[in-house]
Design brief:
Strands 3-2-1-4-5-6-7 form a seven-stranded parallel β-sheet, with helices on both faces. The longest helix has 19 residues, at about 150-170. It has helices at about 15-30, 40-45, 55-60, 80-85, 100-110, 150-170; strands at about 10-15, 30-35, 50, 60-65, 90-95, 115-120, 140. It contains six helices and seven strands. It is of the alpha/beta class.
Length: about 180
């Protein structure tokens, strides 16, 4: 048993650096890629088709969250958004736990509306014993370690050093666009 990705559609919510790398990987597996981002960018347009959030929900076989946690994104995956999704969608969250209403996702997993979920983050970390996703056989939960390989930690240290060096030289890098 497996999941044939070729010809399927992936929906990516948020098109920052990590999401852009994921999009390239998904396209390499022959997937169509839709994207939604509050701040569309040219790099994203070159590798994915930007659509509305509702269109992304209705057309995606796999949805991966890569957006920040703001009041507007808190609980964005909930009964209402799940109802718009394809039956059997796969949901992945390596971004922020509170993007998902976990009780609503657990209900969707149990009813098979959502085929499976992979979450590297949950609403409260460390995870609490009463988290509803713990009772779902079709969810994979990891303890916020997607970033943990040695190479990733070294890259983080290199970025921090470069950021301080650039700041001291009067250059801004890695600025967040907060229009």
């Amino acid at each position: 048993m497996g999941f044939d990705m070729h010809g399927k559609t992936a929906g990516i919510i948020g098109t920052g650096k990590i999401a852009k790398i994921l999009i390239q990987i998904l396209r390499g597996f022959g997937m169509n890629v839709l994207a939604y981002d509050e701040y569309e960018n040219e790099e994203g347009k070159a590798i994915a088709d930007y659509v509305t959030l509702d269109e992304l929900y209705t057309k995606s076989d796999v949805i991966s969250l890569h957006c920040p946690l703001f009041p507007a994104t808190t609980g964005m995956i909930c009964k209402e958004s799940i109802a718009k999704m394809k039956d059997g969608v796969i949901l992945i969250n390596t971004s922020r736990g509170p993007l998902i209403n976990e009780a609503d996702l657990a209900e969707a997993l149990q009813s098979k509306k959502v085929y499976a979920a992979g979450c590297d983050v949950v609403s409260t970390e460390p995870i609490k014993a009463d988290n509803p996703l713990l009772g779902c056989y079709n969810s994979i939960l990891t303890p916020h370690i997607a970033w943990a390989p040695k190479e990733s930690r070294q890259r983080l240290m290199d970025i921090a050093v470069d950021n301080v060096r650039n700041f001291l030289n009067g250059t801004t890098v890695n600025a967040v666009n907060m229009k």
